[in-house]
Design brief:
Elements (H helix, E strand, L loop, with lengths): L4 H28 L8 E5 L7 H11 L9 H9 L4 E9 L3 E8 L2 E5 L3 E4 L4 E2 L9 E3 L5 H14 L7 E6 L5 E5 L4 E5 L3 H12 L12 E3 L7 E3 L10 E5 L2 E5 L9 E2 L24
Parallel strand pairs: 1-3, 4-7, 7-8, 10-11, 12-15
Antiparallel strand pairs: 2-3, 4-5, 5-6, 8-9, 9-10, 11-12, 13-14
């Protein structure tokens, strides 16, 4: 080897190149870790209604370690995403001393029983809220389905004084609505929205005109629906009901598209499910 000058030159050049790279890396490492590039500002942006200054200060003090170059952006993003109301978070550096954080908050749509909140994307999240929100019940795999149908059902009520207080999807995939005025509505498992729209279309001229509180409405009939009045309610005056495209006049308590009776509400047996499934309370069945 020692009698091969060409090989010796290649070896020397290689060692020299390696030493230069190591020195450059060491120099860069030292410079980057010097306290001359500190983060001096953290900007948090987004439509923030729940993420507050105190929460941001706590994350900065606990999780932001290093300077402008050495800060771990992935760990920083994860720290912000642990905020109860944070749905998505993006972070980036802005020269020379700023960290920009963009937070997308959850928009609460309802409560998933007493377990969690549901956002407008049909996702569960755990946060505290004092807002009056509708209550959802259903199997663990039905959160997104319940949220999507809630939006559609709510649109059907837009021109009425009815609002959804509880929306339940039973293990048999049947739908049940409880309104804010206490009326329970059975929609069944098929054609739920058409049935609801048919009921709403005649609601103001029939149910709203009964001059009494109706506690139960069964919409699972092919050409009409049945309602139930309280046992002690006064006799019902003549009302109009739309059935199969025609309008019929109904005498007191006689049935023809609307059936009035005083029997007890039908119960729906809902077995207990493992969290995050939420059972329908007996009080709303």
């Amino acid at each position: 080897m020692w009698d091969k000058p060409t090989l010796l030159n290649w070896t020397a050049n290689l060692l020299f190149a390696i030493s230069v790279v190591v020195m450059l890396y060491a120099t860069l490492y030292v410079v980057v870790h010097l306290p001359i590039f500190p983060l001096r500002e953290v900007n948090v942006e987004g439509q923030l209604n729940h993420v507050n200054r105190e929460q941001v200060k706590l994350i900065v003090a606990k999780h932001l370690k290093g300077n402008f170059f050495t800060l771990d952006l992935i760990k920083t993003r994860d720290a912000f995403e642990k905020l109860p109301w944070a749905r998505n978070v993006s972070v980036r550096r802005r020269w020379p001393d700023t960290l920009e954080v963009v937070v997308e908050e959850h928009q609460a749509l309802a409560r998933w029983g007493t377990i969690a909140l549901v956002n407008t994307h049909g996702e569960l999240f755990h946060a505290a809220s004092s807002s009056e929100l509708p209550m959802f019940y259903g199997p663990g795999d039905g959160v997104m389905e319940v949220a999507a149908n809630f939006i559609e059902f709510s649109k059907a009520f837009e021109n009425t004084n009815l609002e959804i207080a509880n929306l339940a999807l039973t293990p048999r995939r049947a739908w049940q609505i409880t309104t804010t005025n206490g009326m329970v509505m059975e929609l069944g498992r098929v054609e739920m929205l058409p049935r609801l729209k048919k009921f709403v279309n005649v609601y103001s001229n029939t149910i709203a005109a009964l001059n009494m509180k109706v506690t139960y409405a069964d919409l699972r009939y092919p050409n009409g629906f049945a309602v139930r009045r309280p046992v002690n309610a006064k006799p019902v005056e003549d009302v109009l009901v739309e059935e199969a495209g025609s309008t019929k006049k109904l005498a007191k308590d006689k049935t023809s598209g609307i059936k009035l009776n005083t029997t007890k509400a039908l119960g729906v047996s809902v077995p207990k499910k493992v969290v995050p499934s939420v059972d329908i309370p007996r009080s709303i069945i």
